[in-house]
Structure formats: C-alpha cells, structure tokens
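Q: My labmate handed me this sequence with no annotations at all. I'd like to see what the chain might look like in three dimensions before we decide whether it's worth expressing. Could you predict it?
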Amino acid sequence: MAVNLSAPSAASLFPVPGVRIGVAEAGVRKANRKDLTVFLLDEGSSVGGVFTQNRFCAASVQVCREHLARTDIRAMVINTGNANAGTGQDGLARARATCAAAAKLLKLQPEQVLPFSTGVIMEQLPVDRIEAGLPAAIADAQPAHWLRAAEGIMTTDTLPKAFSRQVQVDGATVTVTGISKGAGMIRPNMATMLGFLATDAQIDAKLLPALAFELAEGSFNRATVDGDTSTNDSFVVVATNQARHAKITSFDTPAGQAVKGAMQEVARLLAQAIVRDGEGATKFITVRVEGGKTKAECLQVAYAIAHSPLVKTAFFASDPNLGRILAAVGYAGIADLDQTKIDLFLDDVHVAVGGGRNPSYREEDGQRVMKQSEITVRVVLGRGKVSDQVWTCDFSHDYVTINADYRS
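A: Here is what I predict for the chain of 408 residues:
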C-alpha cells in the first residue's frame, strides 16, 4: 500500500498539445495486461534525456543514447515485463528491430524512435510480440491517454504515477504533464526507473539536455528505495513548442523560471511517488543533512542513512534504535568528521546533541515520531553551511516477499 499516495484521475491530467499516447496488451510477459505504450510527438518537438550510470545498461538505453544524437525524435516505444538488459548483441538487435517496426508503421526513420524497456533482466526480448502489438497501440493514440500510459509502464508498482501543472507565460497557458514508474531497484543516478515529462512550452532545443539533467538532479537523483541502481533508468523531457509565447532561450527570465518551476514540481512529485510506492513501504522518510562543507558530503551522509537496512527496519518497527543513524553517519566516509559537533533530530525531537544523547530526549518521543507515516530525519554536521536531502522508505516483510516472488 503506497504511503499517502492515491491513483490519479484522468481528469487531473492535462493533455500536452503535440503529444498523443497509445497503449496495448502485447503479452510481453503476461497476458491481459497493458504492457506496450507509444508516445507520438508532433514534428518540431525537442527531446532531452538522461540515463542510468550502471555500466551494465540495457540495450534500450544504449539505443536511446545513439538516437538522441538526432534532433527530430518523433516517437517513443515502451514495453514492460522484459528489461532487455544482460542480453548482449542480440538485445541490441531486438531494440533496434522495435524501432524499425514502429518507424515503418509511422513512416519515420528508425533513428527517430526511442525504445524503453523495463522488467526482468537477462531474458530475451519478445520483439515479435511487440511488433504484433504496435498497430493496436498506435491506433489507440490520443492526447488524453496519460493515465493509460502511467498504467501501461507499471511493473511492481501498486498504482500509476502521474501529475500535471499549468502556468501562464506571456498570456498563454503552458501545460506540464509527466508519468513515472518504479518501486524497487531504485537508487537513480542521473535518472529514474522510467520517467517521461512533456510540455508544450517553446524551449530552445539546445537547452533540453541540460534541463533534463537539472530536473533529475532535483528529483529522481534524490530518491532511493533500496540502493540498487537499475540497468534501465531513463528520464526523458519533451518540449513540443506549440504554446503561443516567445521561445525560451534562457531559464534566467520570468518565462523560463515559470516553466522550469512547473517542470521541477512535477518531476519532484513523480520521484517522491516512486518512494511512496516503494516495494512494501509503510513510511515515507526525508533524510536531510545540514551543516556540511559540500553537497557531495551531505548526500554521502544522507545516502548512508537511507541505505542502511538496520535503519530502514527500525523505522518499519517504529523502534527508536537511533544509534543506528549515528553509526551510519560515522561510516559514511567523511574522514575528518568531528562527532562532537553532530546533532540529530527526528522531526521536532532533538535526539542527540554534540555527538551524544540529548539529556532531555525521551524514548517515547522518538517512538511517537517513528509511528508516523511521514518522518524527517535531520542531521547537523557542524562543518559548514551546505545542506541537501534524499527521500527513502522503510524495509518491511513485504519487500522481501515481493522480490522473492518477482519472476513468478
């Protein structure tokens, strides 16, 4: 059960002019489930993307990187049920065959199609089923099918993840809508499991790659469920350039700030939704590290806490065994860390001061906070003025069950 997260309604998601989406049941892994999604982009759209830093990346990631060297991407094809990772040259051939099949139906060049896969690793992609399902997916394409797309890219997710925002730019309404999927094998590094965000804003194509990276940095790169970076992480940003306002050539303008702000909000909500729907999660936890010298060391400490199985299981049990948090801070890898300057807070409860137990701290206060469904862990390092944060969840019995039964 996702933590304080409900499924979106179709009415809450605004269509993005220039984007049509179709979904079909191709039987990629299991019958009778939405598992093939296509995005059709109008001519003149600009696309940027960031991908996993896992060196054992999927074939789809490799092909996407190649195709994004072009500036006229017109379609995206996404399958669930099979990651097409750990499949060697055969996997690359199958990813390219998927692009070729979509391109033939859409009268495009194969390099104008981006492929995405998610699911079981090291199994052969059933490209014949994908090719057979593509006509139905393309025929289904409609501007309002964002919720269907969010459902069509799910794997172990318990509910679809999608958000929309609209802002006014030069008197024109600009729409931002995005979807994501992911619940396990989540520790993104420049991306997320799968995320797609589109806007009709007019944005200079040269800005899209850096924008995708910046959006990921403030959202998906601050989310972790279990510390495992997927082989297939992909985050794509599309600007269809159809809104009637002056083209944005810099984000250091009121128009640029408004559009980027809306995109940042949607990206953040999508990333947090992945954590809230983490496999077996019962609690959503913000780990904030303050008083660091650099953002890097703040994140180093934050991830040490967020990835600790001992910390995560303590949160599941609502057990204020908070020495586990201090231990994680200590082994995070800051060689010159002075433990006598460290303070620890759980929400408003001051747990440790100057590296030791706060004399006024009472365990029942710590337990009160740990019983909440949303918790903030705040660590003050006393080393500088920099801060950063990550979002994570607890580890429950269900996490083990879900991953033990994943392929069955």
